[in-house]
Specification:
- It is a single chain.
- The chain has eight helices and 23 strands.
- The chain is an alpha+beta fold and about 525 residues long.
- Strands 1, 2, 3, 5, 6, 9 and 11 form a seven-stranded antiparallel beta sheet that branches. Strands 12, 14, 15, 18, 19 and 20 form a six-stranded mixed beta sheet that branches.
- The protein is globular, with a radius of gyration of 26 Å.
Amino acid sequence: MNDSILYRPWSSLLPVHSAPAIVGQRSLKFVVKSHWAGFHVFWGGPPNTGWWGADTSVFWPQSNSELRFWVRSTVGGMQIQINAYAYERLIGPVGTVSVPAANRWQLCVLPIPASVDSLPLKGFEFSFGPVRPIVYFDDFKITSVRMYAGNGNPGPPTDFNVAMDYIAASQVGYAPQMPKQFTSPVNFSSYEILRASDSVVVFRGGGPIRSVTSHLIGGATVYVGDFSSFTAPGRFYISAGGKRSLPFNINVNVFDEPVRVAQRFFYYQRAFTAITMPYAEGPWVHPSDSMKAPPGIRKGWHDAGDLTVYFPTMAQTIWWLLESWMDFQPFNDSTNIPESGNGIPDVLDEARWGLEWVLSMQDSSGGFWGNTCAEGGNGYYYGTSTPNTINYYLRSVPPRVQNTAKATAVLAYASKVFAPFDSVFAAQCLSAAEAGWSWIMLNPTQTNDTDFGNCNVYSQGTDPSLIQSNKQWAAAALLYATGNAYYDTLFHSLYQPIVWISSYSKSDGFAGKLYLR
């Protein structure tokens, strides 16, 4: 449990600098242009996010934790103020470091103060004060911390003994016949699986099948054990090398509740409706904000981080819900959403909630508007029952090729998925999709989807590759829905190699998968 978190610049897309550098090959460079400028640094993330990580997992400092980093400034005598941050809020000061000499690397070591010790943190804020130097940082590290892979403020696990409990096994659990692995921070020659209720050994295995070293875990090495051959149902924990795991379950229904909880997340994100008991299984209720919606706009989901309903994220979310049905057929019609019990799988009921928002964003031209943009007070705070405080929503970004192509894709796909359940709704989706494609053919130059208001976060601008990938997705969906050879010809004319996984902007991966259906 005495882990170290290492921050190091891996991405050439960030303000990194090859000279000077003291650790590794690049340092992080800041050209300070205003008084009290600063930056944030958070733990985690894949290599292409570098210093600012995407996986901002919670960590707890301890009484012996230290923040260590190298710094170099073009101005001597400056001071750097460092604050600690939790999830979406400032915790308090960590301390101040002085940089007495210009153009020299200096190692800074700050003990984590008692005011921050044992609080769940996300990262740190560095402020430069009233000077305007060029500052270089390298080799950020915080030592002796306890990790938690998740968001929010769950509190340190009370049964997580620092000396013993450190093997990582799936806290969701394992199905009996699935591959089962765990990781240990220390090498081991053998391991044991013990029954959680009485600590009786029920299975023994050998040493690790491999080791993994990664910058994503601070440059540390972990050792991977495999217990796939153990299939007995029950609740167990693993012991190896003087370490142990938290308890986990093995049974055939182990994923039922996590899937149910994940699926119900969408209910809590629903826009323009009241979230009420008994469907809210907790205190997360609030009144409807439908009176603030633009005329004719209905349903949809609030974004993960704010109250706006964005087309790029909506389209991708609907796609994955439809895909989950097509690939796995989760028939559960009892997840306790308002539509439960209507004879239609709840995953499709939830997908329809998003699809009806898409339909409401189509105007008489056949094109689709971009966002339902929240103006004023746009913050979205989880775990509260506070009504949103925005002034109003507006329908922003007039019809553009990008959003119309995405709408065409998900509606055409939905027409096929919903046909066995609601033929009228399926026909409505296909009609809207075909009208959307006609709009694209008539308006090929309407491509700039920039939102000049409050909601520009997912705009693509006029990138021709992204536009082509979205049209390719639409063509594949219309081909799948209609079987019309015209769309097959269009798909091939729009084809481009799939160079990365599809995202909010780029859809060629979705297009390729749908074409193969």
